[in-house]
Amino acid sequence: MPKVDLNSRTSIAQLDKSNLLGSIEALDKQIEHAWADTRKISVKLDAPIENVVVSGMGGSALGADVIKSVFKDQLKVPFEIVRDYTLPHYVGKNTLVLLSSYSGNTEETLACGEEARQRGAQVLAITAGGELAKLAQANHWPFYLIDPTHNPSGQPRMAIGYSIFGTIGLLEKAGVIQLDQEAIDQTTDIIRQQVRACAVEVTSELNPAKMLAYQLVDKQAVLIAPDFLAGATHAATNQSNENAKTLTTYHLIPEFNHHLLEALSFPATLKSTHLFVLVHSKLAHPSNQVRIKLTEQNIATQNLETMSVNLEAGHKLAQCFELICLFSFVSLYQAMMEEIDPSPIVHVEAFKQALKKEVI
């Protein structure tokens, strides 16, 4: 049993010094805030858009992940995500480049921004400040300046509502995608439901996030989901990696069925070290709904531990946030059970400092 009382906000606050819990619980407000702010931004395109490239790292690229997987039936031009220093060779005046960096100082994104400027691409940006805000202002690029009112933890990864809906809002303004108010309302409604279901005051036997956190003690979670949830599962694993400091991974259906089912025999320790979390959705392609069910059965026949997560929202975007919100709570409760403050990312920050000392 953890020394931290998972049913006590006072007990949790003793470890959660930055109030990461507060950021999780304000996810719906982040979305509403970001959507309202991006409605005020004017985006005028100088040439027809033939392709879209989003440059971002870590949590700053998750909005693009969600868009690419949820809105692919709307996308009329190629859509690419760059998690590196350089843009594809085809980028030019008919490319819409969106630069995303919460801090505004992400070196890979700034490098792509300079390259986009040199190539005459049409550029948008999303940031909370830093060098990217200065670059956008200097070049008169439309940009969304995040005002993180509803991110009390101050952690960039916990501003996920701002970053994802900021990206959605800018690309909607540019005419790349369309989003109606009903989808937004469904998204915020399902988040509120999750916040109530996973709240600190809800005891473990009735709380899906606490139950999953308990099952994950000394286990590595492997999320398996239909492909429209690619962005959401990526976000969920990011939260687990950084908040719970645990190695969580994800795989997508149907690709998982074509090779990874044969990878579960060895090492033999898999049976004691892994928990396979199967995400079921009635909004997935009918064949993928069958595949998820059969995949779970197959993994169980190999004597590996499985758990089902059933998403209930009626819109794909809402289901993405249903999953993200659930795993945000899971990651917090995992951290509490390990008796660690979820906010500091010591190894990431140490790596950044070491990188600054190197001559590249």
Overview features:
360 residues; five-stranded parallel beta sheet; 45% helix
Description:
The protein is of the alpha/beta class and 360 residues long. Helix content is 45%, strand content 14%. The protein has 14 helices and 9 strands. The strands form 2 sheets. The chain has a 5-stranded parallel β-sheet with strand order 2-1-3-4-5, sandwiched between helices. The protein has a 4-stranded parallel β-sheet with strand order 7-6-8-9, sandwiched between helices. The mean pLDDT is 95.
Summarize the structure.
The chain is an alpha/beta fold. Helix content is 45%, strand content 14%. The protein is built from 14 helices and 9 strands.
Instruction: Kindly state the percentage of residues in helix.
Output: 40-55%
Strand content: 5-15%
- The whole-angstrom Rg is 20 Å
The termini sit apart by 48 Å
Q: Could you state the oligomeric state of the chains shown?
A: single chain
What is the H/E string? HHHEHEEHEHEHHHEHEHEHEHH
Number of helices: 14
Low-confidence stretches: none
Sheet bearing the most strands, described? Answer: 5 strands, parallel
Order of the strands making up the biggest sheet: 2-1-3-4-5
